[in-house]
Specification:
Oligomer: heterodimer
CATH superfamily of chain B: Ferritin, core subunit, four-helix bundle
Pfam families (chain A): FeS_assembly_P, Zn_ribbon_PaaD
Protein name (chain B): Ring-1,2-phenylacetyl-CoA epoxidase subunit PaaC
Pfam families (chain B): PaaA_PaaC (PF05138)
CATH topology of chain B: Ferritin
Helix content of chain B: 55-70%
Distance between the termini of chain B: 24 Å
Number of domains of chain A: 2
Strand content of chain B: under 5%
Order of helices and strands of chain A: HHEEHEHEEEE
Strand content of chain A: 15-25%
Largest sheet of chain B: none
Radius of gyration of chain B: 20 Å
Number of domains of chain B: 1
Number of helices of chain B: 11
Shape of chain A: globular
Protein name (chain A): Ring-1,2-phenylacetyl-CoA epoxidase subunit PaaD
CATH architecture of chain B: Up-down Bundle
Helix content of chain A: 10-25%
Number of strands of chain A: 7
Number of helices of chain A: 4
Structural class of chain B: mainly alpha
GO cellular component, one term (chain B): cytosol
Distance between the termini of chain A: 33 Å
Structural class of chain A: alpha/beta
Largest sheet of chain A: 4 strands, mixed
Strand order of the largest sheet of chain A: 4-7-6-5
CATH class of chain B: Mainly Alpha
Radius of gyration of chain A: 18 Å
Largest interface: A-B, 41 and 52 residues
Order of helices and strands of chain B: HHHHHHHHHHH
């Protein structure tokens, strides 16, 4: 396997149904002169999993025979949930986690204030109903919120848009 | 990796497998850290400390709420907000150490500086709860003012001459905007709630209001770098007015907190709360130098 193929299969430590490539965290893999240079980007500034991601990439690449691996961090442009691939979105939903809505290009200028939670129609990953409400704006990891479905009454996690 | 034995996956692994956040590596591997020729090195060092200390000190304050918040979801929320700020602080203090070039890393700057060397604004350090004299409503008033100011500040810093600070700002902006929305929704919920919650929200706003002026008082370093915070005021005022209108609150009379011979947090002159905060933040590292867990 090429280094890119190896790196693309490494799962995210906190959302192991996704690969780092699905998540959009894997930015670049360059192979030159027996050396592999991997570039990743953090999801949130304080995301504690970023070092684990680097360690997993180094471990997997070493196991695949790439002895000389360097993992670099790229802060810019900042990660956005829009980089989660279609495949990643399908995997999230199949694992019972509602994928984020697509934000598209952000307008320049001041960031608008949201005094009431934006009424995004987040579909329940279990029954598909869009009658869902937010239970908590922060969930088990920095990137998720907690919601509940009014139809099947199940709580579920939602990767919040950023 | 085998899951037959609950402990099986823990052996023969790199340290990072034991728990996230152990043995932190240097946080900016491979990021281009050349200092632009247009920026004065001493000024950039001082400015990175200002930004990093704002984030570090408020992260410490918010972490104090862990297990003390009025509901479990809020424990998680405040800890997550603190974590975002701590992540920003790590990047900014690492950058400060790099620019200084004296071999100090993020830990040296966070744990081994004394009170007079910290450059955060007073708003980040004052006691707003959970200890006596504070309140959850006061904490939300502080978070609203702080994050509204930071959103305005980071928004402009996206175009700053130093590419590392600009990148941290662009990323942090999205996080701060979420924090600001969270605080704003609580201020409205409490301000527009029961007579009791309204009164406590009103008291919270009055508690933090004297520290507003400092946020828009430019330090000589900021003026030289072209990042005077004074022009941020109209954007912040607009946001606060919108929140207060929805919350049924009024702006208190502006009575700025006293400065010491014109000096405040940006000059290393702090309130009484700062020494206690640093004692808690730093004592493990100072008692057991280099300790990791």
């Amino acid at each position: 396997m090429t280094a890119l193929e190896v790196a693309s299969r490494v799962p995210d430590p906190e959302l192991p149904v996704l690969t780092l490539a699905d998540l959009g965290v894997l930015r670049d893999v360059v192979e030159a002169d027996g050396r592999v240079l991997v570039t990743i980007t953090p999801t949130y500034s304080g995301c504690p999993a970023i070092e684990e991601m680097g360690a997993d990439l180094r471990r997997s690449l070493r196991a695949a025979g790439y002895a000389d691996v360097e993992v670099r961090l790229s802060l810019t442009p900042a990660w956005t949930t829009d980089w989660i691939s279609e495949e990643g979105r399908r995997k999230l939903a199949a694992a019972g986690i509602a994928p984020p809505a697509r934000l598209g290009p952000r307008a320049a200028g001041p960031v608008p204030l949201n005094l009431v939670p934006p009424a995004r129609r987040v579909a329940c990953p279990r029954c598909g109903s869009t009658r869902t409400t937010e239970l908590s704006r922060f969930g088990s990891t920095a990137c998720k919120a907690l919601r509940r479905c009014a139809d099947c009454a199940e709580p579920f996690e939602h990767v919040k848009e950023i | 990796m085998s899951f037959d034995n609950a402990y099986g996956s823990l052996v023969d692994q790199e340290d990072a497998h034991w728990a996230f956040g152990t043995g932190f590596a240097e946080p900016l591997p491979g990021v281009d850290r050349a200092v632009p020729s247009t920026v004065d090195r001493d000024d950039l060092f001082a400015y990175c400390l200002m930004l990093g200390d704002d984030a570090l000190v408020l992260a410490q304050r918010l972490a104090e709420w862990c297990s003390r918040a009025p509901e479990l979801e809020e424990d998680v929320a405040l800890a997550n907000i603190a974590l975002d700020l701590l992540g920003q602080a790590r990047l900014l203090l690492t950058r400060a150490g790099e620019v200084e070039g004296a071999g100090r890393d993020e830990d040296a700057l966070a744990y081994l500086r004394d009170e007079r060397e910290f450059r955060n604004v007073h708003l980040a350090e004052i006691e707003c709860g959970p200890r006596a004299g504070g309140d959850f409503a006061t904490t939300m008033a502080r978070l609203l003012v702080f994050s509204s100011w930071k959103v305005a500040q980071y928004g402009r810093l996206r175009a700053f001459a130093d590419p590392v600070v600009a990148a941290v700002a662009a990323k942090g902006l999205k996080e701060l905007a979420y924090h600001r929305d969270h605080a704003a929704q609580w201020v409205v919920r409490l301000g527009d709630g029961t007579p009791e919650s309204h009164e406590r929200m009103r008291a919270g706003v009055r508690r933090v209001w004297p520290y507003l002026d400092e946020l828009f008082t430019g330090h000589a370093v900021e003026l030289r770098l072209g990042v005077d915070p004074a022009p941020l005021r109209s954007e912040v005022d607009g946001v606060l007015a919108e929140v207060f209108r929805a919350a049924g609150l009024t702006r208190p009379e502006p009575v700025p907190a006293a400065r010491v011979a014109g000096r405040a947090g940006r000059d290393g002159v702090h309130t009484e709360a700062m020494g206690y905060l640093l004692a808690e933040l730093q004592h493990v590292h100072r008692s057991l130098p280099g300790a990791t867990w």
